[in-house]
Write a structure and sequence with these properties.
This protein is mostly helical. The chain has 2 domains: 446 residues, Up-down Bundle (Growth Hormone, Chain: A); 51 residues. The protein contains 17 helices and 4 strands. It has a two-stranded antiparallel ribbon with strand order 1-3. The protein has a two-stranded parallel sheet with strand order 2-4. Helix 11 packs antiparallel against helix 17.
Length: 510
């Protein structure tokens, strides 16, 4: 695939010293962890922040929504900017901006200031997340090393939410809610030092690339409307005209974006990236996994705290076995199973395991225990997610021209963000409806009926989550190509490129 942003092809990135490549992975992993953490760590801090700043229950959702709106709507722009102005430069700018926004949020003295800081975090997160994955994609070209690197990255992407619950509980309970934001400053400083020392710049030759302004506006508007529509459905319900207005606008803008990309000279998202069968399957799998994972973290967290009366720290610790299983599965998948069986086997296998884990969770009631009833389900889910995420993420960026690695990486994050937004709205709405119906059929209302209604609503969400994963298993099995038909995860070596300590040429806005 040719492009005006083509790179020289003299020496492969693999010529970079192995130790430097692995330090690059550590740096990228820190940045990814920081971005993923902030989608959950602040949730634990919300009650304390609300008490401190005095905002209403109706306003509370904006602390979460401001981040997700900015992050979701600007991801493709962030990915394209990393292609255009240089990965290293974009990565460091993203880290500095994210740290600054976090410090601003930690020091917030008002609700408006906190919401503004969260929106800034989302904007810089949209710059940082796809760039981190693009750096990984262009740094690791040796198949075995690439597998290990994506195993680590996929494990962090899958486990970051649970780590956020643990860290959020610890910081809120033993320090102050503001440290859930301040902690990012320290992580970012370490990552900035690592990026300065270990992330390699790429020398660009040929004409200076141009930014697709109409495409940027169209897709940013479409993604903003989509995320806002689903967020509004969560708060106002599916009968809201505002919900359907934004979802309709999202569809129209998305169609306009696709039509524009077909004729744009310098498209923001070259359609060849998404219409490739393997990559399309990978993006779909990441989105479905994102939707299903929401049910695990949100509803299991509520169950542990409200039904089993766990503290925030105990709740975070309860997810640690799942994280350990996810990391183990990710390493086994990328080093042994994916090279041997390919994503066509491993992704459906992971989806089926995750569906089984979800069904196992539907058995929970008020007399269930963690060790006998919750832990086995979390272990199954952890192994399932560890089989889905690394294989999907690796396939999603495989074979993409280096000049488009950033925007391809952004599509991975966009898929996960959209999946999470859909999962949030659908599962929350279904659970709330199930709780209402249960109470209506078990009057008079008592504390026991209310507690049983909550557990019943969680079970409804788990059943739907199992359905998401089952659908994902079928879709992945159908869409992924058989091994030998096209790209191979274990034998593909991306296009070589010259490395240099000189930054890339700046973008020309067109």
């Amino acid at each position: 695939m040719s492009s005006s942003s083509s790179l020289t092809a003299d020496a492969p990135v693999a010529s970079v010293a192995p130790s430097r490549r692995w330090w690059t992975l550590v740096t990228v992993a820190l940045a990814q962890l920081m971005v993923v953490l902030d989608s959950t760590v602040v949730n634990i801090a919300l009650p304390s922040a609300q008490t401190d700043l005095g905002f209403s229950n109706g306003d509370r959702q904006w602390i979460v929504t401001a981040y997700s709106l900015a992050f979701g709507s600007l991801l493709l722009l962030g990915g394209r900017l990393s292609d255009l102005i240089g990965r290293k430069r974009t990565f460091i700018i993203g880290l500095i901006g994210f740290a600054g926004a976090s410090a601003l949020g930690g020091a917030a003295g008002s609700f408006g200031m906190l919401v503004g800081a969260r929106a800034l975090q989302g904007a810089f997160g949209a710059l940082l997340a796809p760039t981190a994955l693009a750096v990984l994609t262009t740094t690791f070209t040796i198949p075995k090393e690439r597998a290990r690197a994506f195993g680590v990255f996929g494990a962090i992407a899958g486990a970051g939410g649970a780590v956020g619950l643990l860290l959020g509980g610890f910081l809120t309970q033993d320090f102050d809610w503001r440290w859930n934001l301040y902690i990012n400053v320290f992580i970012a400083i370490i990552a900035i030092i690592g990026a300065s020392l270990f992330v390699t710049s790429i020398t660009r030759t040929g004409p200076r690339p141009k930014l697709d302004i109409p495409g940027t506006l169209l897709v940013s508007g479409a993604l903003f409307s989509l995320v806002y529509g689903f967020s509004n459905a969560e708060s106002d319900g599916w009968g809201s005209a505002l919900t359907w207005g934004f979802l309709g606008a999202s569809g129209i803008l998305l169609i306009a974006f696709v039509l524009w990309q077909r004729r744009a000279v310098h498209p923001l998202l070259p359609l060849s990236i998404v219409i490739d069968r393997n990559r399309g399957a990978a993006f779909s799998s990441v989105m479905i996994a994102g939707a299903g994972m929401f049910g695990i973290f949100l509803f299991v967290t509520y169950y542990l705290q409200t039904s089993l009366h766990f503290t925030p720290i105990q709740t975070g610790l309860a997810f640690l076995p799942m994280i350990a299983m996810l990391i183990t599965a990710a390493q086994l998948s990328t080093n042994i199973f994916v090279p041997r069986f390919g994503p066509k086997i491993m992704v459906p296998f992971g989806m089926i395991l995750a569906a089984i884990g979800m069904v196992y969770l539907t058995r929970l009631d008020l007399t269930s225990t963690y060790a006998a009833d919750v832990l086995p389900a979390l272990l199954i889910l952890g192994f399932g997610m560890g089989s889905i995420m690394p294989a999907s993420m690796q396939t999603a960026t495989l074979g993409v021209d280096r000049g488009h690695a950033g925007v391809a990486s952004a599509m991975v994050n966009t898929s996960q963000q959209v999946g999470g937004s859909i999962g949030t709205a659908l599962l929350n709405t279904l659970a709330a409806t199930a709780a209402t119906d249960y109470i209506a059929s078990h009057l008079p209302l008592s504390a026991t009926v209310a507690a049983e209604a909550a557990v019943h609503s969680y079970a409804t969400a788990y059943w739907w989550g199992a359905g998401f994963f089952a659908f994902g298993a079928v879709l992945a099995a159908v869409l992924f190509r058989r091994r030998g038909d096209g790209l191979s995860l274990s034998h593909h070596v991306p296009t070589a490129t010259t490395t240099s300590t000189t930054e890339d040429e700046p973008v020309v806005v067109h």
